[in-house]
Amino acid sequence: MSTISVVMMIVAMVTVWGGLLLALINIKRSPEEVDELDTPSEGSREDAAHRAATDGDPGSRVNASAAPESRI
Amino acid sequence: MSTDTTRGRAAKEAFSGRTMFIFAAIGSAVGLGNIWRFPYVAFDNGGGAFIIPYLVALLTAGIPLLMLDYAVGHRYRGSAPLSFRRLHPKLETIGWWQLAICVVIAVYYALIIGWAMQYTVFSFSKAWGDDPATFFMSDYMRVSDEVTIGFDFIWPVFIATAIAWLVLLIVLMMGVQNGIGKINVVLIPLLVVMFLIMVGMALTLPGAAAGLDALFTPSWSALGDSSVWVAAYGQIFFSLSVGFGIMVTYASYLKPRSDLSGSALVVGFANSSFEILAGIGVFAALGFMASASGTGVADVATSGIGLAFIAFPAIISQAPFGTLIGVLFFGALAFAGFTSLISIVEVIVAGFRDKLGLSRPAAVALVVIPLAAISLLFFPTTTGLNLLDVVDAFVNNFGIVAAALVSVLLLTAGFSALPTLRDHINSVSSFKLGRTWMIMVGGVTPVILGYILIDQLTETVSQGYNDMPQWFVNTFGWGMAVALIVIAYLLSGLPWSRRTAEAFTSPAPAIQDAYVDRGTLARHKPLSHYQDTATRTPALGQDFSLRAIEDGTVVQRQAPWAHAGSGHTDPVGDAAGRSSAQVQSRRSEGELS
Predict the structure, then answer these.
(1) Is the CB of A32 less than 8 angstroms away from the CB of B17?
(2) Do B553 and A65 touch (CB under 8 A)?
(3) Which domains does chain B have, with CATH numbers?
(4) B216 to A12: CB separation less than 8 angstroms, yes or no
(5) Cα separation of B437 and B70, whole Å?
(6) B217 touches chain A (CB under 8 A)
(7) Nearest-CA distance from A63 to chain B in Å?
(8) How far is CA B106 from CA B243, B285, B344, B367, B388, in A?
(9) Which of B228, B243, B258, B344 has its C-alpha lying 20 to 30 A from B25's C-alpha?
(10) Domain ranges of chain A
(11) A65–B17: do the CB atoms touch at under 8 Å?
(12) Contacts (Cβ under 8 Å, ≥6 apart) of A1
């Protein structure tokens, strides 16, 4: 390989792989915040469908959200 | 306890965390284009000098567009049609257009995965013999001389493609976390390890240095050639899976407080890192092929199907440990393609799921079975290769590019949504965006995309496409591209399921949004609040969590138009007073009329 192509190969590897390394360091520095409700379970759509069917009036939604019931 | 019981709203699945999302997004971005398109594009456009326009394109268009898609999906927390619908009712068509593009790509993409799976097996027996080109075209695909639509099936290809669809059906049935997330967490590291071994083996082949020399020798004069810059932007754009709903859909599965811009940087650079690796591996192997056949690297360099299914089999036949190289290469190709296909089909599943209010298994069955039927009916046939050629070219050049251009223009100029989206990203991310990001997304990318679109339009109109019959190109090229827009428009007119329709408001906290900005413009107020994020986004401090979304505390807010008649026009004051007692729901962030 010629010198210039070796140099360009190293430049490409350092910039792109170095960029990936910096991006990984950046994201590692901001740990994920844990939300106590951040564990969504799948398969509870029927429950959601049931709720949608039983309180379909959007107007009631405003009241409901003003005084949210505890669902924990 | 469940978070899916959000009152009156379609249940929302989610990735368990940022890492799983990043793996899934990398799985989507790293696809066939990384392996078989990048090496040749780089070689053909300045060699080593290509790294400069390539990095510029990555930083000025690729990663900013990735962040834009993340912001739309994460803020509006829905499939592409629902997210755009929540941004503004008139934008729903854009979401369906992107979804329709995914339908077209999915039906032919599965065929290529089927080929890669079969060639993995062929690597053991080197079934292609001495002439891989004749084998692929005549013996394997039995490509018809006539360019038309036929139903003369090639059963081995049919079965391989059907297996790809079946595996896809199972993965998507298992859900976002257990299906999509977990398979990407397994396949992406496996793909990287396989490819590293393959590259390591290729580098030991005689002639590998000549191949790398050909790839990396810079042609500095290429930097003055506009077509090289367009090629760099085109490669970045097609490679990153931006602009057709994939990243919107995946980002909607992220938890509310997730580092969006940090993730986009990781995904953008990871995708390019794999491309550099693929370039080294492919050209080392091509260098070996050239030295074995006594020709120059330029004579054997190629891309796409020719590279994977004609050049590589020749290399595998001649190289020591050729079978291992073949298994690693075609296995990597199949894995890279499959993780991308998952993301493409998930866009469609999510869209229909939201629109019709279906459960995941119902939506997956409704989408995957018809798609598989169309795919298996038209592509594993003697006429399938020509159809793939036309459909692929037109859906990329006149589907993805046009949809991305229109959506960027509308988000920037039509609905001035960029400040909102930027502030949304800043509210959850480590890497803060400023005006530069808006200039890149709203200024640079429309110019580049517009240039690519016009360039392709004029060339295809004046020269036709690949000497194919005009009726064939008109039907499956132009006709298909236009039909996508018409179908998207019609779908956006159909009613949403009641469950989804009740939640047209963005679940994210209020930010001085597109909607307020338009109101300000209408009243001839200067948009001075654009200058500083801190003064125009007092809402950033609001609680944005699954709990807040569930309780509705960030959904119900004072509608900005409530002040329209009262002479109250201070937008900053609007936002500050938004949590006051005067609560009014609205059906989307953009609904003004």
Answers:
(1) yes
(2) yes
(3) 18-493 (1.10.4160)
(4) yes
(5) 14
(6) yes
(7) 10
(8) 16, 30, 6, 11, 11
(9) B228
(10) 3-65
(11) no
(12) A9, B209, B212, B213, B216
User: Residues with Cβ < 8 Å from A45, sequence gap 6 or more?
Assistant: B4, B10, B11, B359, B360
The B residues from 542 to 581 touching A (CB cutoff 8 Å) are: 545-547, 550-553, 555-556
Give ipTM to 2 decimals. Answer: 0.83
Q: What angle do CA B391, B394, B397 make, to 5 degrees?
A: 145
The residue whose two tokens read 């997956």 is B364
Task: Give the global pTM.
Answer: 0.83
Class of residue B58 by CB neighbours under 10 A (exposed 0-12, middle 13-18, buried 19+): buried
Q: Do B259 and A30 touch (CB under 8 A)?
A: yes
pLDDT band for position B423 (cuts 50, 70, 90): confident
Per the model's pLDDT, the better-predicted residue between B154 and B523 turns out to be: B154
Dihedral, CA of residue B474, residue B477, residue B481 and residue B482, to nearest 10: 0
Distance (Å) from the alpha carbon of A43 to chain B's nearest alpha carbon: 8
* Residue B153 to residues A66, B242, B310, B547, Cα–Cα distance (Å): 61, 34, 22, 53
Instruction: Identify the pLDDT of residue A66.
Output: 35
- pLDDT tens, B477-512? 999 999 999 999 999 999 988 877 766 666 665 554
Mutate to test the interface with B, among A54, A60, A65 (most CBs of B within 10 A): A65
